[in-house]
Design brief:
This protein is 41% helix and 12% strand.
């Protein structure tokens, strides 16, 4: 994946770490889209790895990250110590949540001073709309301090970001990025193997691994330890009777541009949303 000249560039760019990574990957994705499952899997398929979680967009990721892992294990020490433990030639992996490249492309400053050329690969993590929205809403409903209006406000903002992410996914090949669909990743080992090959990583462990603890783990199955036991494709079915979820789907269905994007990538989701029954009309006499 990385030429000798490119590897030398990577070494120089990341010299502040005190080690020379063999490659550097950056991933962006919406919360509840399997970001941490995929990040853990990537680390398991590297000799050794340094993972900086949930970096702050537009800032130096070496100074503005929310958690460190060394080869899949959480690290509580300093970044310099973590990098030393990861060692020379480690895979460097950075993650960003709920953000988009298009908001930073004009200045190429998503990672602050580290430009796109600092990375050997940019991954776009995405999930089917019905399952993603069901998981995020279910997560929000577990927060007792949130009222229904609070949840809908969060979901409306996330909906707009998700819609723009679909644009980036469709343009991934032209932009040189690698789009990874969590739904396909979770059910198809050949799909996972192809992604590893595209990234130049050797297939070492192609399992789904353990459920990651970030964000409280699964929104639905709180006690499940093995990711293979999660019913990831059935989240929308568990929520379809929820009034807030129904309202969210109706709101999304009103956005023609959003629905066009969704139909291009997840036609089954779009088809189901167009079949939702309309809200009953208000009786004008009651309000006269």
């Amino acid at each position: 994946m990385t030429s000798v000249a490119a590897l030398a560039t990577v070494e120089n760019v990341w010299s502040a770490l005190g080690i020379a990574p063999t490659s550097a990957l950056r991933m962006t994705g919406m919360r509840r889209s399997g970001n941490h499952a995929i990040a853990n899997w990537l680390q398991r398929n590297a000799d050794h790895a340094l993972f900086l979680n949930n970096c702050r967009p537009g800032h130096d990721p070496l100074r503005s990250h929310n958690g460190i892992e060394v080869s899949g294990q959480r690290y509580d020490g300093s970044l310099q110590d973590a990098a030393a433990d990861a060692g020379e030639g480690a895979l460097l992996l950075l993650s960003y949540e709920d953000t988009l490249h298009l908001r930073f492309d004009s200045k190429d400053n998503l990672s602050g001073p580290y430009k796109s050329t600092s990375f050997d690969g940019d991954l776009l993590i995405y999930r089917s709309f019905l399952n993603w929205s069901a998981s995020l809403l279910k997560k929000l409903q577990r927060n007792e301090s949130y009222r229904s209006a609070d949840r809908m406000a969060v979901m409306a903002r996330a909906l707009a970001t998700y819609g723009d992410l679909l644009v980036e996914v469709r343009e991934a090949q032209d932009s040189g990025r690698i789009a990874v669909c969590y739904d396909a990743w979770s059910r198809d080992e050949l799909y996972r193997a192809r992604v590893l090959a595209d990234l130049g990583l050797t297939l070492r462990d192609n399992s789904l691994g353990a459920v990651q603890p970030y964000g409280g783990g699964s929104s639905f199955q709180l006690d499940v330890a093995a990711a293979e036991d999660l019913h990831l494709q059935e989240r929308w079915r568990a929520m379809i009777g929820d009034p807030e979820y129904q309202m969210l789907l109706r709101l999304a269905a009103l956005d023609r541009a959003f629905m066009d994007r969704l139909e291009a990538l997840f036609p089954a989701d779009a088809a189901l949303m167009t079949r939702l029954p309309a809200l009953p009309e208000l009786d004008a006499e009651v309000y006269s």
